Amino acid sequence: MDEWKLAMALLLTLSALRTSSSYRYASDDLRIDCGSSLDQTKPQPETYLKWKTDENFIKTGQNKLLPTNHTPAQLNTLRFFPKGRKNCYSLPLFTQYYKFLFRAGFLYDNYDGLSKPPSFHLEIDGHFWANVMTSLSEEPVFHEFLYIIQEKQATVCLVRTNDDEVPFISSLEATAQLSDSYKFVDNKTALYLHSRINYGAKKNVEQTIGSLDECCNRIWKSKTMPNYLNIHSETVPDGYLFYENTPPWPVMAYAIQAHNVTESIYLTVDLSPKTAVKAYLVLYFMDPIRRFPPNQTSSVEIYVDSVKLAVKDVPTFGSYEDMYHVATLFPVWVGGSVANVTISPAEGSTMGPILNAMEVFSAVDVSEGGRFSDFSALLIVFLHLLFLCLNCCK
């Protein structure tokens, strides 16, 4: 009986240590500068956001300062993992059963002098996230994942896939999303980001302190289109809109438009390296220009690979009752790695079709092979040893 009391005391102590350690660093907006030796007590000049070192989130691997300086500053260091097949970060998060955006960044920069950029796998809570393929380019590689966490932490692992290639990581982020955003994401479905484009814009939009434009740590890449009208409002309001997916005002203030009402917008969506994809597309519509006469109307039909999937009105700028419309297309079955999106004028429209932004994801099934944490494995080993000890004491 005394042995069981001791066992339970040890088990409770182990659980308490884990809980207190995680809670101490728990966050709903966690940004980790992997391989850095000091917390950035002063916000970065590029974004005015603070980044933490990774020493409290992982105990394996080695730090490395890159030979050249990069922007943003968190890309100047990395952590590499010469030992073990799988090395994992434990990310303590405040909110269980909540939607989080996870982003991992990688910049090789020939840190090891071998000129052999590695490839490896990225996992989250035992689920495959991405096949990371690094290069000698000075451009970093980012992988983003939208996922509902099942516990008050998430485990992100780098998995060696080739014996002679060493995994590494430059940055890791986890940011809580608004509960009603990306409405078809659930406990069985996560989203892997392929692209998030703000059409007609010349400047990326991302989250910074002191600016309320982007609420949720998304990065909207700007893209002008020479074959279409690149239009924008005369003034760009600050902040973000409060309806579906809360897009930033600076995103919705820019758009592309077909030259006339008889033409369509044609876009190619790249889903590589995946093939036979269940895609999740989000399109944003608002006319950023005040039109004269004001009774002009815009309505669009949305096709993917020649299949009509939605019809949307395009609200006019300054219409406070109906500020913008979002078309969420899911599931969209794509047979290859490329899909063709066509936005055509709908019947009754008096203007060429308009598009402000589009997000392209592939859906990931996370219903099987659930979370099996390092702590769970430790508990199993502990209980097995305890069972052997108790048998020996009989």
UniProtKB/TrEMBL annotation:
Tagged with keyword Transferase: no
Compartments, as annotated in UniProt: Membrane
Domain of life: Eukaryota
Domain Malectin-like: 32-362
InterPro entries referenced in this protein's UniProt entry, alphabetically: Malectin-like_Carb-bd_dom (IPR024788)
Signal sequence interval, chain numbering: 1-22
KW Zinc (keyword) present: no
GO (cellular component) term, any one: membrane
Coiled coil regions in record: none
Membrane topology type: Single-pass membrane protein
UniProt keywords, alphabetically: Signal
Protein's UniProt name: Malectin-like carbohydrate-binding domain protein
Organism, as annotated: Actinidia chinensis var. chinensis (Chinese soft-hair kiwi)
Lineage: Eukaryota, Viridiplantae, Streptophyta, Embryophyta, Tracheophyta
